[in-house]
Design goal:
single chain; 185 residues; mainly alpha
Length: 185
């Protein structure tokens, strides 16, 4: 095999261990190194994650043009930042459920108008942020910062294939949030 075993995981040749300094370009490149990102989170090396997150936020309105590997890379960055901020899955459960319901609606009828659903997701997301207080507000603001521009684009062109791209990204963020140790509560 072409890698080093670490617990139940394979490590790439040249892996330097948890205490190593990490090159952010290798960490968050086209093919993100999720194990080193996880180690950076555990070591609380948050500034470099924030910088990459801000870069993804600037590109959020262009999400329809993202290639699959870009979508994955951006989802990894967003998820790592949300974990660093302390986002809990239960804080955004309603948004996730609403998006899932739209996805099921589109599976039943691809041509169905979803503009009202997108508007509803957008204002519930804003309400969720506005309702938060204290330490829980910052991670929700970050979640809003990435999703709201995408929802704005989706409102202008609410086609099923555009929603699928949004929903795929959202699912990837949730999956990596869990992978990086994001909590439910």
């Amino acid at each position: 095999m072409n890698g080093l075993r670490y617990g139940n995981h394979m490590r790439k040749p040249g892996y330097r261990g948890r205490g190593s300094t990490v090159d952010p370009l290798k960490l968050f490149g086209e093919f993100p190194d999720v194990m080193d990102i996880k180690a950076a989170l555990e070591q609380r090396k948050l500034e470099m994650i924030r910088l990459y997150f801000e870069g993804v936020v600037k590109k959020a309105r262009d999400y329809l043009a993202w290639k699959p590997e870009e979508k994955l890379s951006h989802a990894v960055i967003v998820a790592s930042y949300l974990v660093a901020q302390g986002l809990k899955t239960n804080q955004v459960r309603r948004i996730l459920e609403m998006a899932r319901n739209v996805e099921l609606k589109l599976k039943r009828n691809k041509g169905e108008d979803i503009r009202d659903d997108i508007v509803r997701i957008r204002y519930v997301l804003a309400y969720t942020v506005g309702r938060a207080t204290g330490r829980s507000k910052s991670p929700l603001e970050a979640f809003h910062k990435i999703l709201d521009p995408m929802l704005e684009v989706l409102m202008k062109d609410p086609k099923a294939e555009n929603f699928e791209k949004f929903y795929d990204f959202l699912q990837a963020v949730v999956a990596y949030h869990k992978f990086f140790g994001g909590k439910d509560r």
